[in-house]
Sequence to fold (382 residues):
Amino acid sequence: MGDYLEPIMRRHCGEHPQPTSLRGSVATAPYCHCEEPEATKQSHSARTVGLPRSLRSLAMTSLVMVLLILWSSGAASAAPQGSRWGAGYFPNVSLVTHEGQTVQLYDDLIKDKKVLINFIYATCDKACPLATAKLLQVQKRLGSRVGQDIFMYSITLDPEHDSPEVLKKYAERYRVGPGWLFLTGTRDAIDQVRYKFGERGEKESHTNFVRVGDGAKGQWMRLTLTGNIDLMVGEIGRMLDPARYYAGRPAKSFADAPKREITVEQRLLLNGQLVFRNQCAICHTLGKGSGMGPDLAGVTSRRERDWLARYLLAPDRLRADGDPIATELAAKYPSFPMPNVGLTHEQVSDLLDYLAAHDAARQGAQRTDSSPAPSPARGEGK
Fold:
């Protein structure tokens, strides 16, 4: 199977299926429900054989109560003994933060901590800008908890180029808050770390996931960074702090959800809206001003659809070819050049349909607002 963190998503559970929510947009496997090893079963059986059924029941009830008390009080320190993903799994190599501090991967960054970890490199112009922007929104949603009981780490895949100084400028460009470290190290140290987290390919084709881990419990999962922000934050809350997340949240059935009939045209627009929310809204708004990128309100009126489609599919190619509009946009937003996020032709078409519908509705509302008020009827207004 290979000794890296990919089994974390399968939780080393053999043929046990793992849950995937929302058509795979968020892959989760926070707990392992495998049965105990046979040797453990035999050991438990040997201790209870010969006891009356009532005593065996009382003993098991007492054991469960003790375990629940320990779990709820957070008695575990570091990963539980025998956990696959504890000190024996992660290399305790030295890394250097973007602030110039030397730290140990396991002892300083993972042990007894709740963490979010992803891999980037400063010159990446495809997945990394969107991933960093997404995590910036996650950090804002988590608020003051980041840096207190949740810690975020972005580890470079290009240590030869990404010195602490380079990573500091990268962090400043995105205006990240406290509690989020950008890390580099020697090539050997970085290779050991990425190997354990399942990053085995070339840096240009690295996976676009964030690893969510509870170092005290030895529990891990991963989330795609192309998914919905609300879903990501919800999954992180359920994983890292289930007691707080579920407090006061009564379970509801999907059968009780309100039902709404929508037309085919509305469904197609919803597809485009989903693309916008997941891929565009991190950097762009619709009528609320420029952010990391330009305001997209009215963009289907300002630009030809064919050009917009080509730009959305391959903005990096248009910049490389010297396209004047792409070059102008890159000069206007030098810190955040439009990344190639890998949209399909269908997604681009859905997105442009949604933007066009939004622009048409906006123009209609403006015409209504600018229409002269009707003249008062004879005898009115006196």
Residues 264-368 form a domain with the Cytochrome Bc1 Complex; Chain D, domain 2 fold (CATH 1.10.760.10).
